[in-house]
Amino acid sequence: MLGFGWIRYVAEMITRRSRQKLCKRCRLLYEKSFAYCPHCVDIGDSKLKTLLKKRKRLLGGLGTGMLVASLVITLLLLTAKFI
For residues 52 and 14, what is the distance between their CA atoms, to the nearest angstrom? Predict the structure, then answer.
């Protein structure tokens, strides 16, 4: 039986997001109570650029992997239907 815990989870995520701010420099969320973003305040511009490229490459690879996995599952389901 499906419970209603997901409603509480969604409400908590909305509340948490309302207490956070998006950093314009590193594009990560941090608490509004902080004066500066704790993720990138001590990082130089060149290192930050390297980290952003790495994050983009990792997230792009994740999307490609999910696409390949969905295609494989689709092909398996189609072949199982005709066997």
Answer: 26
27 φψ region: left (φ > 0), alpha (ψ -120 to 50), beta (else): left
Residue 37: other Cβ atoms inside 10 A? 19
Q: In the chain, how many domains are there?
A: 2
Pair (64, 49) in one structural domain? yes
Model pLDDT for residues 22-79, shown as the tens digit of each residue: 999 988 899 999 999 998 889 899 999 998 898 888 877 778 888 999 999 999 999 8
Calpha distance 15→67 (Å, rounded):
32
DSSP the chain: ---SHHHHHHHHHHHHHHTEEE-TTT--EEETTSSS-TTTTT--HHHHHHHHHHHHHHHHHHHHHHHHHHHHHHHHHHHHHH-
